[in-house]
Automatic annotation (TrEMBL):
The keyword Protein transport does not apply. Binds 1 Fe(2+) ion per subunit. It is found in: Cytoplasm. PANTHER family: TRNA N6-ADENOSINE THREONYLCARBAMOYLTRANSFERASE, TRNA N6-ADENOSINE THREONYLCARBAMOYLTRANSFERASE, MITOCHONDRIAL. Coiled coil: none annotated. Its cofactor is Fe(2+). The lineage of its organism: Bacteria, Pseudomonadati, Pseudomonadota, Gammaproteobacteria, Lysobacterales. The gene is tsaD. Substrate binds at residues 139-143, 172, 185, 277. It comes from Agrilutibacter terrestris. This is tRNA N6-adenosine threonylcarbamoyltransferase. Keywords: Acyltransferase, Cytoplasm, Iron, Metal-binding, Transferase, tRNA processing. Belongs to the KAE1 / TsaD family.
Amino acid sequence: MNVLGIETSCDETGVAVYSTGTGGGEPGLRAHAVYSQIALHAEYGGVVPELASRDHVRKLLPLIRQTLAESDLAVADIDGVAYTAGPGLVGALLVGAGVARSLAWALDVPAIGVHHMEGHLLAPLMEDASTRPPFVALLVSGGHTQLVAVEAIGRYRLLGETLDDAAGEAFDKTAKMMDLPYPGGPQLAALAEQGQPGRFKFARPMTDRPGLDFSFSGLKTQVLLAWRDSDRAAQTKADIARAFEDAVVDTLAIKCERALDATGFDTLVIAGGVGANKRLRAKLQALAERRGGRASFPRPMFCTDNGAMIAFAGALRLQAGQHGDASVRVTPRWDMATLPEVA
Ligand code: ATP
Ligand code: MG
Ligand code: FE
């Protein structure tokens, strides 16, 4: 089964073809492409929803043609279509849903609306088939910071989440405060590489009390004060970036360990854009090994938004016989716990 995946929830247009291997051939990703709108939104310092929708309209069909060509498939070889149906920007989601539903209708194949965070969560399984539930998933992206107990594919129990900013949002906002170019998260992480650890020290928020929730907005304020009162030299900037990154990484690691203890699971899965962070990857890898368990990450390009994770998550559900009706519907706010289990 060849599944076309379409991601348009925010400012990346992602398209991919995933083959399930049923009906012959090896299972795996046949082709994928991502077009990022970063340059379009840079002058505004953030994503402008209406511009995002219009750019998805412009890019989606060419990207589908390009991806099909790279996968050596004709449009008639597509057996199912998966698209992000939420959460995300309503206009952006509607572009992907409209194109996906139309294509499925024309080809007379099933289509399914995929939960964007389930896409992120399952990306490590697409990369490594030996990663299977049960596991604890740390979802760390631009809009979410959640710990989820994954008992089965589609059976998700929220263990804890951020009460304010998401980890990626904290990276982006902190970078902006320190005048790093948009979008700041990856730039701040790169700057932290040159920083000296320990020169600045920030709190590990909410680790001094039990529980699995997070809060990152106070950390941002601590950085702002440190930066404001500093000499603002290049090395100082790097040292503050390093201290910020260490605080976020430590906090995430402390809560991951608690979540593993609470569930008794030994596998930790990390997904979402902040999962691309090198220091976070190293820290969580070491944590899992120390406990005799394992940590599973997608390659960095599949941590941030992409069509491959949507094709893969959709393929699992389509294979199980799940699909939606022909109406074009999106769910901008959508609780992952309401998803059906994949039988
Ligand atoms: P959501 O998935 O919650 O809807 P999103 O789709 O915008 O949000 P992703 O594409 O998963 O988020 O991830 C983008 C986020 O990841 C940004 O906040 C970005 O700063 C952050 N990010 C990307 N690379 C790194 C890195 N190396 N270190 C830290 N943060 C990073
Ligand atoms: Mg993005
Ligand atoms: Fe995302």
